[in-house]
Structure formats: structure tokens, C-alpha cells
Design a protein that fits this description.
281 residues; alpha/beta; five-stranded mixed β-sheet; 7 helices; 11 strands; 22% strand; chorismate mutase activity; Chorismate_II_sf; EC 5.4.99.5; chorismate mutase; CM_dom_sf
């Protein structure tokens, strides 16, 4: 039997240097491909204000998480790839990330930095409407707004209702898990991206009259709903996310059945299906 001579520390360090150099060279090779991709997108007229392609990114992040194995924590690989992809998006067409910190600064800042890194400029706002206005006035900036009930009670999503207004185009993290280091669920808002939009989960703004606890309980379990009650008008504004295979009519019927009335409905965006994996072992 042949015995292997253990490698010395210096030998192992030169192996690490070889791998580091190879990874760096691969990243430089990736940037040359991105250069060619920009030309192809330009020729195909597939350029828009932002180079962010949520369907492609959701798919890449899912595959990364699925193939990952070994000692390196998943959080680390995921954050490395987020920085790679977000930065290559930035070098194609510079953009800023506007974030609503009203939900709590540390969680939102962590989400922005985890998903977009430090090269993409980060612009803090206090309130979701400021984020939406900034996106609206930009060429291709992205907005981050927490997908949780607004502490202010302001139904910010009504600002997405008009045709041509910004829309929800993604939800982060792309792959959810219980112990995610930047696990705050966040909507990404941008100018409407039409053909590039991924329409697995559809998001609707509903204006409801006769809002009550019973109406709240009547919302079907498949719908993920954020509620901003409006006591003065005995109503509520709802932001409802519907998974593949469900229609907004089902939510309207359930609300009506529970004694509420729906006086307006508008689609305010869509995103990739929520992909959940178990906690790391
Ligand atoms: O595939 C694209 O369209 C790209 O622009 C490339 C790339 C990437 O770096 O892999 C960057 C931005 C997109 O959001 C998706 C992927």
C-alpha cells in the first residue's frame, strides 16, 4: 500500500494560493462574458433602465443552494454569489438601492448589503413612499420595502397601482430558510419590467370596505396578506400575494363571504415562487 506523504504547511498554502488565483481568474473571465452579454442584450433590444433580471437570479440562487455541500456555511456561499451577481448587474448599468428603514434599520441594512453588496450605492429612506418616489424618478434604481405590516399603518402599495408606476418585481431572500442571516422578507420595487417579469406569485392591492376581524379570518390560507386598517372609513387596504394556481377572485369571494366588500383591485407586481429549504445541519 502506498502511503501519502503529508503536505507541509507551505505546500498547503501554495495549494490555497493556486485556488485563490484560479477563482480570481474565473471572476475576471466572468466579467469578460458579461461584457459580451451586454452587447447581445443591446442587439436584442433587451436593455432597460436596470440590468436586474429577477427570474434568472431566482433560478441561479436556487441552484446554488441545492448543489452546495461541505464545510463552508451556506450563508457564506450565498452572500458571495449575491455580491457577484449584484455587482455584475451594477457594472452593466449603474443603479442605487433605496431602502425603507422604518421597519428597523439593522434588519433592512443587512438585507440590502447581503443581497447587493457594498459597491452598489445604498440610499436610506424613512418610509416606503420615499423609496417608491426615488425609484420612480430614477433611470433604473431598485427599492427595498419590508413585506410585513407597515408600522406606520400607511398602505404604501397603493402608490404602485397606477399604470406605469413602479411595481414589485422580486422578493428576497430568493431562498428562504429559518436561520437566514438576512431573513427579513423584502419586496424589490422597480420600474415595470414587463417581459422580464416573473409571474409565479402575483401581488395585488385590494381596497376593502366593512373590514372586521371576521373578514381577516376569512382570508384564504394560501394568500399571504399584509393589512393596513383604515378605522376612519371602516375599511382596510390589503396587499395580497397569491402563489401559483390561485386567482385574486378567490380572495375577493372569501372576503365577500366574510361580510366585507372589495371596491378596487389592482395588480401591483409579481415575483418568483417562494422557495424554502430546511435549516442548515
Ligand atoms: O443573465 C443576465 O441577464 C445578466 O445580466 C447576468 C447576471 C449575472 O451576473 O449572472 C446579472 C444580472 C441579472 O440580474 C442576472 C444575471
Amino acid at each position: 500500500m502506498q502511503t501519502q506523504t503529508p503536505l507541509s504547511l507551505a505546500d498547503l498554502r501554495s495549494e490555497i494560493d493556486r485556488i485563490d488565483e484560479a477563482m480570481h481568474r474565473l471572476l475576471m473571465e466572468r466579467s469578460a462574458i458579461i461584457d459580451r452579454l451586454v452587447q447581445v442584450k443591446r442587439t436584442a433590444g433587451a436593455e432597460s433602465g436596470s440590468a436586474f433580471r429577477p427570474a434568472r437570479e431566482a433560478d441561479m440562487m436556487r441552484r446554488l443552494v441545492e448543489r452546495h455541500d461541505g464545510l463552508l456555511p451556506l450563508d457564506t456561499v450565498e452572500s458571495i454569489w449575491r455580491v457577484i451577481i449584484a455587482t455584475f448587474t451594477y457594472v452593466q448599468a449603474p443603479y442605487s438601492v433605496h431602502a425603507d428603514l422604518a421597519v428597523g434599520e439593522p434588519a433592512m441594512r443587512d438585507s440590502a448589503r447581503f443581497h447587493f453588496g457594498f459597491t452598489v450605492p445604498f440610499v436610506p429612506h424613512m418610509g416606503a413612499r420615499g423609496v417608491i418616489d426615488a425609484v420612480k424618478g430614477s433611470k433604473g434604481d431598485l427599492g427595498l420595502i419590508a413585506a410585513v405590516a407597515p408600522g406606520s399603518g400607511d398602505p404604501w402599495w397603493t402608490a404602485l397601482e397606477a399604470e406605469g408606476a413602479p411595481k414589485i418585481i422580486a422578493r428576497l431572500p430568493f431562498v428562504e430558510r429559518a436561520d437566514h442571516p438576512a431573513g427579513l422578507p423584502v419586496f424589490v420595487v422597480s420600474h415595470p419590467i414587463d417581459d422580464a417579469a416573473v409571474r409565479e406569485v402575483r401581488v395585488y392591492s385590494l381596497r376593502v370596505t366593512g373590514w372586521s376581524a371576521a373578514a381577516g379570518r376569512g382570508i384564504p390560507a394560501f394568500a399571504e396578506v399584509v393589512v393596513a386598517p383604515d378605522d376612519a372609513l371602516d375599511g382596510a387596504a390589503l396587499l395580497a400575494s397569491l402563489p401559483p394556481g390561485h386567482a385574486v377572485d378567490e380572495v375577493i369571494a372569501a372576503l365577500t363571504e366574510a361580510g366585507a366588500g372589495v371596491r378596487a383591485v389592482a395588480e401591483v407586481g409579481s415575483h418568483a415562487a417562494i422557495h424554502k429549504v430546511g435549516a442548515e445541519t
